[in-house]
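So, can you check this record?

>
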Amino acid sequence: MAKKDLGPDKVAIAKKQAQAQVRAQERRTAVIWIVIGVILVALFAALVAYIVRQSDVAAVGSGEQSTPAVASENYGFPVGDTGVVGEGLDDSRVRVDIYLDFMCPICGIFEQTQGPTLDSLRADGTADVYYHPISILDRTSQGTEFSTRSASASALIAQESPENFLAFVKAMFVNQPAENTTGLSDAKIQEIAAAVGVPDDVVAKIPDHAYSSWVRSATEQASVDGMKGTPTVAINGVMQDPQANPDDLNWSTEGALLKFVQDAAGQ
């Protein structure tokens, strides 16, 4: 039986089809490897992020713990008319206590709307302001304990770089992370501290979390004081309740706190 002659045209077509199939297979293989590569890169990035988060968390409270000598008996950092923790204070002035958590979004709003008022009242000698960084929102930072870590950093700065404490608090709210995220890493907190002028030797101590146990005690004391959430404001020891007075104590309204402090000062 004679072999069937495909002819030169049919051979060429078959050859082209075979080549096309090979190229298609090569493209599919390339796409598969690209997808695998992307997945591996994403997994590696996730692993690195996890390791970084775990390194932050692992150190919280595990090292030598300290108590800031500049803090008041009820765990507040007092700031008078000089803007430096522990300086420029006068017992005859109105005392304003602010309880805050660096993860608290309303605290961020409070700093924007009431911070300038507090700065003015403090600078003109009307009030001394006591800042209470606490950690009631660790549960909203995906296990990284951001509230405790950031409050510990603020305590460190209050103690060892008191002239930069207020600037650090304000900068932390400018860079405030959203709730239910991992918060800021220790490295980012260090970057913020350095940017406001905290000396390098103090910045280097932030990852030690040396004041984390103190922060937890401060948080417990805040509840004893009557703090029900953050931000909470006390004027001359009396807790102010925005829910009981929503028209006048609306933290989203600029200067809402002014009248209450002036009334306490007899102005």
